[in-house]
Hints:
Number of domains of chain A: 1
Distance between the termini of chain A: 29 Å
Shape of chain A: globular
CATH class of chain A: Alpha Beta
Strand order of the largest sheet of chain A: 1-2-3-4-5-6-7-8
Helix content of chain A: 40-55%
Oligomer: homodimer
CATH architecture of chain A: Alpha-Beta Barrel
Structural class of chain A: alpha/beta
Largest interface: A-B, 43 and 43 residues
Radius of gyration of chain A: 18 Å
Number of helices of chain A: 13
Amino acid sequence: MKGLDPVEIDVCVSEVGPRDGLQSIDRILDLETKKRWIEAEAAAGVSEIEVGSFVSYKRLPQMADTAQLVAFARNLPGLRVAVLVPNARGATAAIAAGAHKISIPVSASETHSLNNVNRTHAQMLDEVRHIRGLVNAVEERTRPYFEAGIATAFGCTMEGQVPEETVVRLAEELLAAGAEEVGLSDTTGYADPKMIRDRIRAVHRAVGHDKLTGVHLHNTRGLGLANALAALDEGITTLDASLGGLGGCPFAPGASGNIVTEDLVFMLEAMGYRTGIDLDRLLTVRDIVKRGLPDEPIYGFVGDAGLPLGWSETRRADNTA
Amino acid sequence: MKGLDPVEIDVCVSEVGPRDGLQSIDRILDLETKKRWIEAEAAAGVSEIEVGSFVSYKRLPQMADTAQLVAFARNLPGLRVAVLVPNARGATAAIAAGAHKISIPVSASETHSLNNVNRTHAQMLDEVRHIRGLVNAVEERTRPYFEAGIATAFGCTMEGQVPEETVVRLAEELLAAGAEEVGLSDTTGYADPKMIRDRIRAVHRAVGHDKLTGVHLHNTRGLGLANALAALDEGITTLDASLGGLGGCPFAPGASGNIVTEDLVFMLEAMGYRTGIDLDRLLTVRDIVKRGLPDEPIYGFVGDAGLPLGWSETRRADNTA
Lengths: 321, 321
């Protein structure tokens, strides 16, 4: 996805903590703290943030302030404001709020889909077609980007293995139904680097490279960054991550832990990928989340170990050269 | 290194917990528990274990029973018994005990070398030559394999960046001085996947692929398995790891945490690499270490999250097919 980047970057690190991180946490983080968090990350150079989801607030009261967050985040310079929607009703709210990017998760495992949103694949494809219509009705200048994220794309805690063919077919169907792009999500932390490579290649072969540019990985079994590396090797340019590794999927038992934004940015920048993010500054944002959620574990190896000796000086020298 | 594998494997996971893991822990693990740990890992299919080091026991009392552990482990079927030695005196003891493999760490950062063992590069090369002589004096049938591990090969907490040329030159010098092989160690957790690839390639170009087949990685900044993946892509076939992620380097402040054996085996087996290790069985070994070290944190994502649904059944089916 192109359009809003003010600086040239190689890889877009998409912060999903305010959505995926918070949705699995009982304690409601107050609106003002969420705003400070989002503002601070944007100021550190994060160019895309999923600020919330337009879901049933009875089911996920944590997300009740999503419209307010979209309105706030839209005013932050250079930030692409993403939201998650489970259905057309959510998409209507997302469009009304003015989100730049709308993602609908569609689970490759139909069992997971039924458990999660009580919808079959056919019903989800209907939702996608419906949303396409809603998006098309928006005037082009402010029309949001519309993506479908294929959840449980690497395995499911309910079904076990999810066949590659299922993922490829679903990708084709979602694009045909009107999604501009698909993403692959390791909702359950079942992926390994070979599976990542194989499935990205299979989807790329089927629908083209530009229709799959992002993946959403969890670190459930410690392979998150190895999987991210495998995805980068296949040309993926958007990686979701959560500050402090907050969160997971509340509807997939035992499947917790997004990859850690700080650790991912460290890996990318160390390898020479430009993320546009000031890592020293990003690390200070952890304090906002820690203060707001004093009882939640905040993960992250770089946060604990600190940056390598000379890192910040070298970066600054590089950036002024 | 070839010779002792009873089963055909693609990647040798070398367990270094009893040495690298324990050396950074104050509490002395008793000899009987160490034996049970080593025996249980060997029974799970681990084909190489670094059981201890022949160092000054005043400095590292945890290692005082290394000779007894070598004697014990030599009787375990199919196990290659490795030890670390800091100098020729240690090598003499290792040879007397009957170790199958002797590794001497030589730090690419001379500052680290001076702080760690009070030796310059020139002095360490003298030790290597001396050890080569000692090894040659052993009759061929029982002669141990002699490797030099290049410590701080990816950066140093004292010097910061360590130039690639320093590592390549040291590799050449260590081989010329009589090491059969060199390994690269990320003692400080400063490596990233690009650096891993670049340095392995540079050393391979300089000395040949068969003179560098193993790496020793830490997970200090969360990149351990991503770095392992990068190393595998470059043809590395031996990866050190520590059960429960125990340990680190007591002489490099802030640099803790070997990559976790269980998580590494999970990644390898999931990708289709044969390790010869029964992961279900390996996971049960964690209890031995936990009971023996009740106050130490035991890491590992797979240990916490469990194996994917259907994993064990699929493995068993594959193995009997």
